[in-house]
Amino acid sequence: MNIEHYLRKDYVTKITSEGRRLDARSDEDFRPVRITKDYVEGKADGSAYVELGNTKVLAGVSVEVGTPYPDSPHSGILSTSVEFRPIASPDFEIGPPREESIEVARVVDRGIRESGMIDLDSLSIDDEKVWAVFVDIHMLDHDGNLFDASTLAAVTALLNARLPKCEEGRIVGGEYQGKLPTRCTPISCTSAKIAGRMLLDPCLDEEYAMDTRLTVTTTDTVNAMQKGGSGSLKMEEIEKAVDLAFRKSAELRKLVEGA
User: Which of 2, 72, 201, 224 is the most buried (most CB within 10 A)?
Assistant: First the structure.
């Protein structure tokens, strides 16, 4: 963290302790959300572009013929990766995946996988081949809360992804047999603890000031949770974050499913 980040941290902590937020939102408000499906139509089997305030994320889905894992020979494959592009932030550099990008990928993947969004058991092609679903997430502009922006983009892209036509274990180029089979719409909501308050959808300056954060992914139940930061959370703070996740995910789910 450089000197500019420290100065921002002190200022954000001060105004948060006074009961305010940088952009005058309430503790329980998301920044404006804009979702565009099929953003790179023709270049991916499914895609979505999401703006969460000034955070911008692009997700692409590609579906390929693959070999199943030995412990699940009749189940399809799901793989999620995240790339922090240098254009998104001066803190991002070209090179191997950063610890932060690996964490975002795992949180998004876990929420999708544990919710059962994709019916992996229905992705068997024959006794030797299954469908492999790859979700590639690209950070285009980083202004905080990459977890929720990435989940929104990935889930929207998956909901609109198409399953290629396959003959004799090979994909027929340019032809599709229908939508990728999905069961539900998992949504993540992240709260940051600053000066004893739990703030939903932290922007980047608020992330500099937070003690800890909690990301909760839900459908009609809690599917996954991820804590970050060095601080601690009281039971009532966890319960508040979970309650917020259920209430706000209902609003976001309508946006995703209507995209």
Answer: 201
